[in-house]
Amino acid sequence: MTSPIAAIAGVANAAAPLPNLVTGGQPGPAHFEALKQAGVAIVLDIRDPMEPRPFDEPALLARLGMEYVNIPVTGTNLDDPTLERILAIVRGNQTRPMLFHCASGNRVGGAMIPHLMLDHGMTEGAAISAAMRMGLRGAELLEWGLDYVRRHQAA
């Protein structure tokens, strides 16, 4: 059986930041089939359903028997409720192999900063470096994650 990270070879910004978690940009149908074979059970997609897509991802995942969760992240909802919904899924599935993706990995990187720092004890610098390997490029997304951490760190 192939590993989840091998299953998404060729996907933009493919990364394996934590055990049982792979991240990246938009995979294609063959990637999802390989992810299923690699044991991935859940897909968290933070693309807006209205973004152009070359295929029907929810239908494909249903056919493959994989759980699909969509929490859209757009420029208008970079807020705590959105981030907390994402964190609940990531935190609640740490023992299940999971793919977390957007179009390029940019949004994923910003959303992962709080999980890396608050739940895994990474320093700010290490979390930012990991997020950049996941595809983070946007300053607004970086600040979204860091601001959440600053307000939620134990005093």
The percent range for strand residues is 5-15%
The low-confidence parts are none
Query: What share of residues is helical?
Result: 40-55%
User: How many beta-strand segments?
Assistant: 5
- Supply the CATH architecture: Alpha-Beta Complex
Highest CATH level, the class? Alpha Beta
CATH topology: Protein-Tyrosine Phosphatase, Chain A
Short summary of the structure?
The chain has helices at residues 4-7, 29-37, 57-64, 80-92, 106-119, 124-134, 139-152, and strands at residues 15-18, 21-24, 42-45, 67-70, 98-101.
Structural features, described:
The protein has 155 residues and is α/β, with parallel strands linked by helices. It has a single domain, classed as Protein tyrosine phosphatase superfamily (Protein-Tyrosine Phosphatase, Chain A). It has 7 helices and 5 strands, in the order αββαβαβαβααα. Strands 1-2-5-3-4 form a 5-stranded mixed sheet, with helices on both faces. Helix 2 (29-37) packs parallel to helix 3 (57-64) and helix 5 (106-119) runs antiparallel to helix 6. The longest helix is centred in the last third of the chain and has 14 residues, at 106-119. The model has no long low-confidence stretch (mean pLDDT 96).
